[in-house]
Write a structure and sequence with these properties.
Elements (H helix, E strand, L loop, with lengths): L8 E4 L5 H11 L3 E6 L11 H7 L4 E4 L5 H13 L2 E4 L5 H5 L3 H7 L4 E6 L14 H7 L20 H24 L4 E5 H8 L19 E5 L5 E5 L4 H11 L9 H6 L1 H12 L4 H10 L4 E3 L10 H5 L3 E5 L5 E5 L23 H7 L4 H9 L4
Parallel strand pairs: 1-2, 1-4, 2-3, 4-5, 5-6
Antiparallel strand pairs: 7-8, 8-9, 10-11
Helix pairs in contact: 1-7, 7-8
Length: 377
């Protein structure tokens, strides 16, 4: 079977979270990825072994000191042969290194160049340092994580990093499609804060109420009598609410609409919690499933690989590293009928493929050894 992006070649110098997530998605779809890393240091995420491995499968690792002119010559030679370059430097750094879009476009006009940054390549915030939580704050997303007392909670998932990785992959594929029509590549500017603003579009400029950690009384996390938790997901559907009330014996609350449920949230949640505190989580979930109410137990990370649905959909794969160690990886999340979801290359060791890549470029073993002695690779 032919993979969708088979034949597309990508140079990825972006580290940490967004860039590696982007290139991993493209690698899962069949693209050939070279991960460009600093000699002796590599991606800073390597210090967190599992984190690094979870984002860097289907890639080869090349060490290259881009501050050295000789290393840039190697890099330029690669650029001539590749379709995509991704970088995650702060704005201006790529220019100082001589690997900015204008420089690489002259070498290869067909190159798609993708920059991922916190606030984008233009605008008054472009030079500010930041991490995911800062971008969520800028986009107004933390309003979704505010309790009834007005206190904010920091989400435990790097939403901006993940969303920007997805948007970068989408932008790259769109630019590759455009190249089929025009014959030339283009610059893809991905801002983490822009991506989060896009996800907030149903709230911004409208009168839609922010749910925060409140909202509908039937939308929340509940604690059963055995101290186990489960979720109920009634967002606005009156029919689900009526089924819930009938199932738990709170008939007097049937017929309340969404606005009334939000206004009386504290009272209603308290009554529901009273009922659930007298039952185990298994009993609560079974009761609500039988009533066709949206319910699901809160699972721990350790429980997920053994979940029968996860197993059925083959969302966890076991792969063997170069060292022989076996690890688990989450599969590519989209099932295409004509594409196997097989992991072709395990997460690489630092510089594992440097010699192979340089030899393919025509460098001799003596030249490669000289590069090492001069800290070029």
């Amino acid at each position: 079977m032919v993979l969708p992006l088979e034949g597309i070649r990508i140079l990825d110098s972006a580290h940490q979270y967004p860039g590696p997530y982007c290139s991993m998605l493209l690698g899962d779809l069949g693209a050939d990825i070279i991960k460009v890393e600093r000699p002796g240091v590599g991606d800073p995420a390597r210090f967190a072994t599992h984190f690094f491995r979870s984002l860097n499968r289907n890639k080869k690792s090349l060490t290259l000191n881009l501050k050295a002119p000789a290393a840039r010559e190697i890099f330029y030679r690669l650029v001539k042969q590749y379709d995509v370059f991704t970088e995650g430097f702060r704005p201006g750094v790529a220019n100082r290194l001589g690997i900015d879009y204008e420089a690489l476009h002259k070498i290869n006009p067909r190159l798609v160049y993708c920059s991922i940054s916190g606030y984008g390549q233009e605008g008054p915030y472009r030079d500010l340092p930041g991490h995911d939580l800062n971008y969520q704050a800028m986009a107004g997303m933390l309003e979704c994580f505010k309790d009834k007392d007005g206190n904010y909670t920091a989400p435990g998932v790097a939403i901006g990093d993940l969303s920007s990785g997805m948007f970068a992959a989408l932008g790259i594929m769109a630019a590759l499609m455009a190249r089929e029509k025009t014959g030339v590549g283009q610059y893809v500017d991905v801002s983490m804060s822009d991506g989060l603003l896009s996800w907030m579009s149903t709230f911004i400029g409208s009168a839609v109420e922010m749910r925060g950690v409140g909202g509908d009384a039937g939308y929340g996390i509940f604690k059963a009598g055995d101290d186990q938790y489960f979720t109920i997901g009634i967002a606005h559907e009156d029919w689900f609410w009526d089924r819930l009330c009938a199932a738990v014996g709170l008939e007097e609350y049937r017929g309340l609409n969404g606005l009334e449920r939000r206004q009386r949230r504290e009272e209603l949640v308290g009554r529901l919690q009273e009922v659930f505190s007298k039952k185990s989580r298994e009993e609560c979930v079974r009761l609500l499933n039988e009533a066709d109410v949206p319910v699901f137990p809160v699972q721990s990370i350790d429980e997920i690989p053994e979940d029968p649905h996860v197993k059925h959909r083959e969302m966890i794969q076991e792969i063997t590293l170069t060292s022989g160690e076996k690890i688990r990886q989450v599969s590519f999340p989209i099932r295409l009928s004509e594409m196997p979801r097989k992991i072709r290359i395990p997460p690489p060791e630092l510089g594992e493929h440097t010699d192979e890549i340089l030899k393919d470029l025509g460098y001799s073993e003596n030249e490669i050894e000289q590069f090492r002695e001069e800290d070029i690779v």
